[in-house]
Design goal:
Number of strands: 2
Oligomer: single chain
Strand content: 5-15%
Largest sheet: 2 strands, antiparallel
Strand order of the largest sheet: 1-2
Structural class: mainly alpha
Distance between the termini: 49 Å
Radius of gyration: 23 Å
Helix content: 55-70%
């Protein structure tokens, strides 16, 4: 076996390993996305809002929860508006698991 054959064989093994790692990366990314989605659903459900209230919150998070009666009795502030901020049509905050318009987490863009 000459040197080129050995290099071809080694190259093929490396390509196989790379394919295995790419599959593992895709699976881990999928699991991560599912966990992020689960956390988002839990956060939204913890608001205990009706669909109408949720839409109002998504459209104007600073005013909608106060108007719907979800306030912090000590400060009079909305109990959920504080951890969120509204920027360019997206809600940011609450542990940074809200996706950016590009589909990635906002810190990854």
């Amino acid at each position: 076996m000459n040197k080129i054959d050995k290099l071809d064989k080694e190259l093929e093994k490396a390509r196989e390993k790379a394919a295995e790692w790419q599959a593992k990366i895709r699976e881990l990314e999928k699991q991560k996305q599912e966990e992020e989605n689960s956390q988002i659903v839990q956060a939204v459900r913890s608001l205990k809002l009706t669909p109408t209230q949720l839409m109002a919150f998504l459209n104007d998070p600073k005013n909608s929860l106060t108007a719907s009666g979800h306030t912090d009795p000590k400060s009079g502030r909305s109990e959920w508006a504080a951890p969120f901020s509204w920027k360019g049509g997206m809600i940011f905050g609450y542990h940074n698991f809200v996706a950016a318009p590009c589909g990635r987490r906002r810190n990854d863009c």
